[in-house]
Design goal:
Layout lengths: L1 H24 L5 E5 L8 H15 L5 E6 L5 H12 L9 E5 L15 H19 L4 E4 L7 H6 L3 E6 L6 H8 L9 H4 L2 H22 L4 E4 L2 H8 L5 E4 L7 H4 L12 E5 L8 H14 L7 E6 L4 H16 L6 E5 L3 H10 L2 E3 L9 H8 L3 E5 L2 H7 L7 E3 L2 H14 L4 H11 L4 H12 L5
Parallel strand pairs: 1-2, 1-4, 2-3, 4-5, 5-6, 6-7, 8-9, 8-11, 9-10, 11-12, 12-13
Helix pairs in contact: 2-18, 6-8, 11-16, 14-17
Subcellular location: Endoplasmic reticulum membrane
Main location: endoplasmic reticulum
Keywords: Endoplasmic reticulum, Glycosyltransferase, Membrane, Transferase, Transmembrane, Transmembrane helix
Length: about 450
């Protein structure tokens, strides 16, 4: 029995070594690979991808750019959507190629009802091997956080630059399990059973150890916030720097602070409809506010974001149902997959920006709402707390529904008198401009170009 297990692992090792040799042999010169399995998703991570692509083209490196993506849409369709959503025009560019990743589905959480992170880790390894076997490159830029395959790239002689949006696993996640607190990745069924929670802690510690090894195989890690850097620095043994993500704040800065089109008591939330964004917290907060003071019955909450797949659609339906259960269905509006111009129109009529994700790695939407002159209420954790908002100086911070309700009341009641806060918020977010990102990215990537 033992020799069969040994033989099995020797076969896997042999396949890996053979694959890495093939990748070395078939390497394309003057080519830069960018790994982003969901290149057409339309979120903040995708903005990073397309600004990186745009900057590499403008640098006139003479390199072809290969994007490893699992999206089935054609190249021009993806580039048209990029232009529509982000205002980045790459349509018709001949230096951009796409390589289809059939194994993208292997990294989706829905495939692994148990041991989800381990399944995604192994799936990410397999996907990286597929990508590099299909198209081998001298330099790989990972803008999606697929660290599990860095060791294979390293074994194949490929230099890896990682743009890290958030750690795959962190000590914060372990702490939540230790405290037996339910969350989107720690169900109440597990959180309420002490023995199972202990087992999950050891499972997380093993994953943390693996993540520290494979992550250290990258040559440079660019982290999107101080919070992300602090977590990555504790795990990876490599060069680590902070590079704030590109925020398209110019158009938001052009919105008048006290525009006549503003609708009183209107809050907007911008973000993909994923569980970790915790839109339900926003619904509960608005319901509490109205219960506390009926004068806010005329308030509005605009939930704006992209719905990418069936899982997201189910999430939106669940939120609609929760709004009904809380008695605020008339106050809540859903705006799905809107264009950039439609987003601007919705921002312009709003007075308050709302963000509720716990330990958000950065918070591009937070920056955009501050630039637009909204009184922005963000979660008192992660990037918004450490890098973006100073409470009652450039915005407001909250954690629990009651705190969010209090902040909403304060913002709605004092919007016109909080001129200083709005001005200081705009001054703060100037550091997160697209121009600053492009300049810093060029300075960091220049030594890695083939």
């Amino acid at each position: 029995m033992i020799w069969k297990i040994v033989l099995f692992f020797l076969c896997i090792l042999g396949y890996i070594i053979y694959s890495s040799i093939q990748v070395r042999k078939n390497r394309r010169r003057k080519t830069i690979g960018i790994l982003h399995p969901y290149s057409n998703a339309g979120g903040g991570g995708e903005r990073v991808l397309w600004v990186v692509v745009k900057k590499l083209i403008h640098m006139k490196t003479g390199c072809k750019i290969v994007i490893y993506s699992g999206d089935s849409e054609g190249k021009e369709e993806i580039l048209e959507k990029t232009k529509k959503l982000f205002g980045i025009d790459l349509v018709g560019n001949q230096d951009i190629e796409f390589v289809m990743l059939n194994r993208r589905k292997w990294i989706e959480a829905v495939r692994y009802p148990v041991l989800t992170l381990l399944g995604q880790l192994l799936g990410s390894m397999a996907m990286m091997m597929e990508a590099l076997k299909k198209c081998s490159v001298p330099v790989l830029i990972d803008t999606h956080g697929q660290a599990a395959g860095y060791w294979f790239a390293k074994l194949s002689g490929i230099r890896v630059v990682a743009y890290v949006h958030y750690p795959f696993i962190s000590t914060d996640m372990i702490q939540r399990v230790r405290e037996m607190r339910p969350s989107y990745n720690n169900s109440s069924k597990i959180a309420n059973i002490r023995t199972v929670s202990y087992l999950k802690i050891y499972y997380y510690k093993i994953l943390l150890f693996l993540y520290s090894i494979i992550g250290s195989c990258c040559d440079l890690a660019l982290c999107n916030s101080s919070w992300t850097r602090n977590h990555i620095q504790a795990l990876w043994k490599t060069t680590i720097k902070v590079l704030y993500p590109p925020c398209d704040i110019k158009v938001f800065l052009n919105i008048p602070l006290n525009s006549p089109s503003k609708h009183p008591m209107t809050a907007i939330s911008i973000g993909q409809f994923r569980p970790e964004k915790d839109h339900e917290l926003q619904l509960r907060s608005l319901a509490l506010l109205i219960q506390k003071n009926p004068k806010f019955e005329n308030s509005k909450l605009l939930l704006v974001g992209s719905s990418r797949n069936e899982e997201d659609k189910a999430r939106v339906n669940y939120l609609r149902q929760r709004a009904q259960e809380l008695g605020i269905e008339k106050q809540v509006e859903f705006h799905l997959n809107v264009s950039f111009s439609e987003l601007l129109s919705l921002v312009e009529i709003s007075t308050v920006g709302l963000h509720s994700m716990w330990n958000e790695h950065f918070g591009i939407s937070v920056v955009e709402m501050m630039a637009a002159g909204l009184i922005t209420i963000a979660n008192n954790s992660g990037g918004p707390k450490e890098d973006i908002i100073k409470h009652k100086v450039t915005g407001l911070l909250a954690s629990q529904p009651e705190e969010y309700a209090d902040c909403l009341e304060y913002a709605f009641d004092n919007y016109e008198s909080l001129e200083s806060l709005k001005i200081q918020a705009r001054q703060r977010v100037s550091e997160f401009s697209e121009e600053n990102f492009e300049e810093a990215f060029q300075n960091n990537i220049i030594n890695f170009l083939p």
